[in-house]
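Issue: ligand-bound run for protoporphyrin IX containing FE - logging full I/O for the record.

Environment: standard queue, default settings, no custom constraints.

Inputs:
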Amino acid sequence: MAFKSFLASLISIVALFQASQAGLIKRVACPNSKHTATNAACCSWFNVLDDLQKNVLFSECGEASHSSLRIVFHDAIGFSKNSNKGGGADGSIIKFGDTELEFAANNGIEEIADDLQGVADAHGKTYGDIIQFAGAVGVANCAGAPRLQFLAGRPNATAPAPDGTVPDPFQPVSTILARMADAGFSSDELVALLASHTIAAADEVDTTIPGTPFDSTADQFDTQIFIETQLRGLTFPGTGPHQGEVASPLAGEMRLQSDHNLARDPATACTWQSFANNHALMTQKFSAAMKKLAVLGQNTNKLIDCSEVIPVPKGTSVTPHFPAGKSHADIEQACSSTVFPNLPTAPGPAKSVTPVPPGT
Ligand code: HEM
Ligand SMILES: *[C@@H]1O[C@H](CO)[C@@H](O)[C@H](O)[C@H]1NC(C)=O
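Outputs:
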């Protein structure tokens, strides 16, 4: 105990010292830009930032910012610890787009791939770097998001990733967890990465209802995804194509079968629940898992830290809540060791979740 508090005070003294040093670090003015940087090697990324925000992401937590995060996963997860196939976070999804964008799991990625290719080419950046950069900037456009690490310097991809590395929402949890483990991620890390579905919508799962969000606040990096997926769902009856699948009980919201199952599987349910009313824990675990995802297959000794270019995200005003008309009684308890937290219910009558407008 005494040693712990000694350590704690030592750590805070070190932190103070670092903070005072930070004030003394000289910033350099970046050429052709209104920005200054502590590392001159990061200057060119400010020009990429301005271009991306103005022409692709529109500085908002909309469709393009969401897609920028999705492509981070689909590029990087093309990696296996147990085979030499797939280069991870290497930009192969753009460089070898003729191959990878044909994979069924990459349906809907074409547009952001095309936009990011244009920006990368205009600024002489590799596709591996532009994907990770846009992902971090896209996340930062969402209120409540963490400021992710950004390392620059990935070489060009040399080969496409094989098909079958991106999990499918209809696979059983065991298959999804095995694939993630093959790429080096634990079940807890997968759950942390799925905080991403708090800023997400589907265009391709059901093409008749494009832009259907996975939670009621798709422009906020809040914890609602971990709450709303735990609401008792509606099971499709009959013999149609969706028979036996479980849908969100909220009008206008889509629930992926994989999110539904991960929220209820004994391997993942308690971690899933732990994020429901703990935004700080969720963002911390998400950042840590993203840091790993962003450099899969890369030699980090050859990358330089340009995190200073990533904008500082705004806070969110959303506090964890049950959607209007729902309460703790609607929770399908899955974690066997702890009861789902009780939360306030949003006031007013139940309302339909608004779709995410298409990017322009
Ligand atoms: C079990 C693993 C996962 C499965 C099965 C899955 C599946 C899906 C599906 C089917 C969509 C809808 C695509 C569409 O129809 O347009 C989607 C969207 C999305 N996913 Fe995942 N995903 C998984 C993990 C991840 C991870 C790890 C990330 C990021 C770290 C991520 C980020 C996103 C984002 C941001 C969107 C929204 C894209 C948009 O709105 O344009 N997903 N995911
Ligand atoms: C990547 O490839 C492009 C051309 O395809 C080339 O201009 C560029 O220098 C390469 N970048 C690196 C870092 O190898």
